[in-house]
Design goal:
The chain is α/β, with parallel strands linked by helices and 315 residues long. Helix content is 39%, strand content 17%. The chain is globular, with a radius of gyration of 19 Å.
């Protein structure tokens, strides 16, 4: 079976590619390398440097390769950038997805798995947020991740294209770029390893649901063959305060660096965690990494990248 992964040189996509190759799939990586990195690309995959906004080039890849499945990870994921430039955000996340869906229909792809986001929910009406929660995104980014969900459903109705939608909580782990897509874990890790002061936007009591990247990758593999026409939260079902996260990371790093506090960013949600019961029941998936385990693996990765020995952090 041949699987095409958009964004396969990126943080999450590269882990999905690794697991697919481990499971003996033929894997095609489509990435424009705007945020993805060549060093993330598995050598056993076939790489095409193509932007999903370039329909002709994307179509040429499908014409040549005829993939059986598509896992769609390519996206503009920065909430702040979506506010500064909503047109670019919408182009990549909405129009790029439409281009991909057109190719899937034209070349008879069996199924597409789409990476959506907890940002589609907006401020919680209740916790933990399940898949039936109202969809009221606060940011343009949230809107640009929700809109392709509607296109997926319409393409399925009109052309019988199978799909599964995965709404991710806050993904962290190795290969996340603290200077690029920069989730809070990678940004904090970057600061702690350089012995610089981390910054918390808001008062630090805001909560997030932190899920390790390899758990997300395994959810995508499960969704290739399960959960047709369904939406699933991919999460830990646990809330962690940002200040508590930093405390835990200081403990793991052996540091005691206090944060600076700045004004909360517009579009940020105060508190959030996602109910993952549906994914457990229908995808037979559940997270395998605790927060501490995931943070320790992440520290190992960044320590090597920064050429810092973990023992030196205690000095």
């Amino acid at each position: 079976m041949k699987v095409l992964v958009t964004g396969g040189a990126g943080f999450i996509g590269s882990h999905i590619v690794d697991y697919l190759i481990r499971d003996k799939y033929e894997v095609l990586v489509v990435d424009n390398l705007s945020t993805g990195k060549e060093e993330n690309i598995n050598a056993s995959s076939v790489f095409y440097r193509v932007d999903i906004l370039d329909y002709a080039s994307l179509e040429a890849v499908f014409q040549l390769e005829h993939p059986n499945y598509v896992i769609h990870q390519a996206a503009q994921i920065n909430v702040h950038n979506s506010i500064l430039n909503p047109s670019s955000d919408a182009a990549t996340n909405i129009l790029g997805t439409i281009n991909l869906l057109r190719c899937c229909v034209k070349f008879h792809v069996e199924k597409i798995v789409y990476a959506s986001s907890a940002a589609v929910y907006g401020n919680p009406a209740y916790l933990g947020i399940d898949e039936k929660h109202p969809l009221r995104p606060l940011s343009f980014y949230g809107v640009s991740k929700l809109t392709p969900e509607q296109y997926l459903k319409s393409f399925s109705d009109l052309f019988q294209l199978k799909y599964t939608i995965l709404r991710y909580a806050n993904v962290y782990g190795i290969r996340q770029d603290p200077k690029g897509e920069g989730g809070v874990v990678s940004i904090f890790m970057d600061r702690l390893l350089q012995r610089k002061q981390p910054v918390i936007f808001g008062d630090g009591t805001q909560t997030r649901d932190f899920i390790y990247v390899e758990d997300v990758a395994l959810a995508n593999l499960a969704a290739l063959h399960l959960g047709d026409g369904q939406v699933f939260n991919i999460s830990t079902n646990q809330a962690t305060e940002v200040t508590k996260l930093l405390e835990r990371m200081n403990e793991i790093c052996g540091t005691e660096i206090k944060p600076a506090y700045l004004e909360a960013k517009p579009g940020d949600i105060k508190t959030c965690y996602l109910n993952n019961n549906k994914a457990q029941q229908l995808l037979f998936w559940k997270p395998g990494f605790s927060l501490t385990e995931g943070l320790e693996l992440t520290l190992d990765y960044y320590s090597q990248m920064y050429s810092v020995k973990k023992g030196d952090l205690h000095a």
